[in-house]
Amino acid sequence: MADEVELAADQHVRYIVTVEKKKDSFESLVMEHIRLNGAYWGLTTLDLLHKLHAVDAAEVVDWIMSCYHPESGGFGGNVGHDPHVLYTLSAVQVLCLFDRLDVLDVDKVADYVAGLQNKDGSFSGDIWGEVDTRFSYIALCTLSLLHRLHKIDVQKAVDFVVSCKNLDGGFGAMPGGESHAGQIFCCVGALAITGSLHHIDRDLLGWWLCERQCKDGGLNGRPEKLADVCYSWWVLSSLVMIDRVHWIDKEKLTKFILNCQDKENGGISDRPDNAVDIYHTYFGIAGAAFIPIPWHFYRLSLMEYPGVKPLDPAYALPLHVVNRIFLKK
Ligand code: GRG
Ligand code: ZN
């Protein structure tokens, strides 16, 4: 039976559009403090499914800008929330989707991000100072999309990421931190964006990452943990960037993702039979978008799952959006 399951694309589109509109639903309520992230996940998914026009672009751009803090140059997670790099990247990514970076004071936003770099090259997430390789990735990704990498010390940023590499080939949140697929995505993405992938032992890291595939076909985030659809993104994108994605059993992973769908009402959950949410809907479809195609093929815009646009593993945006940004300059 599982063999016959297909991607319920139309239902997922309907689910995303209704979550966006149902502002008083339980899911909207628990997601409130990360609404800008939710907008990025939902809208990127719509674009991957060729349905970005289902939302009003001008309305989205107005709402994004209402989360902007002109004094600092950063974005909050929702209207009236404090600025943080995490939401600043989501805002920039959504504006990239709509090709509307023109509404930004690009230097002001870039200065906000650049101002969060510390002496050792690491980045804090906001004025409170928490340091994490997530913020290194976010800063590099944001500044690269804005063509403003020259505002920071890129070499020091790379050195800090490399200092978080472990003997198992993986990366943690800071020097000595345990390897975790989410942090690995951030560090590999940061190194990809800065042209520094030579710091990675591809076979060693590829081995650690492909060991994340469990008996049920899904991927987990570190040893001994349960499989979860979001790792279809964190693990696969990292494998694509180091050209080792063919080490995953594609059929088994596809089945795992498709079995996490709510085929009637749309949406994808973390594992079969759990409640769906917008975060796992994005990462499930994003996984399906690049189940195993070596990066050099994939860069030629070949797409794997029918009806899903190809995705850039480093910038976490549809490939055509990334091409538009870098070919325009
Ligand atoms: C633009 C895609 C994109 C990302 C922005 C925020 C960010 C950069 C990256 C986050 C990377 C990260 C740390 C992801 C992991 C998220 C996650 C599922 C954490 C759960 O970890 P545990 O240890 O759960 O609580 P497990 O799965 O290990 O049981
Ligand atoms: Zn998850």
Automatic annotation (TrEMBL):
Keywords: Metal-binding, Prenyltransferase, Repeat, Transferase, Zinc. The keyword Membrane does not apply. One of its GO terms (biological process) is endoplasmic reticulum to Golgi vesicle-mediated transport. It catalyses: geranylgeranyl diphosphate + L-cysteinyl-[protein] = S-geranylgeranyl-L-cysteinyl-[protein] + diphosphate. Its EC number is 2.5.1.60. One of its GO terms (molecular function) is Rab geranylgeranyltransferase activity. It is an enzyme of class 2 (transferase). One of its GO terms (cellular component) is Rab-protein geranylgeranyltransferase complex. Its cofactor is Zn(2+). Residues 7-316 form the Prenyltransferase alpha-alpha toroid domain. Binds 1 zinc ion per subunit. Coiled coil: none annotated. The keyword Repeat applies. Heterotrimer composed of the alpha subunit RGTA, the beta subunit RGTB and REP; within this trimer, RGTA and RGTB form the catalytic component, while REP mediates peptide substrate binding. Belongs to the protein prenyltransferase subunit beta family. Catalyzes the transfer of a geranylgeranyl moiety from geranylgeranyl diphosphate to both cysteines of proteins with the C-terminal sequence -XXCC, -XCXC and -CCXX. This is Geranylgeranyl transferase type-2 subunit beta. It comes from Zea mays. The lineage of its organism: Eukaryota, Viridiplantae, Streptophyta, Embryophyta, Tracheophyta. The gene is LOC100193289.
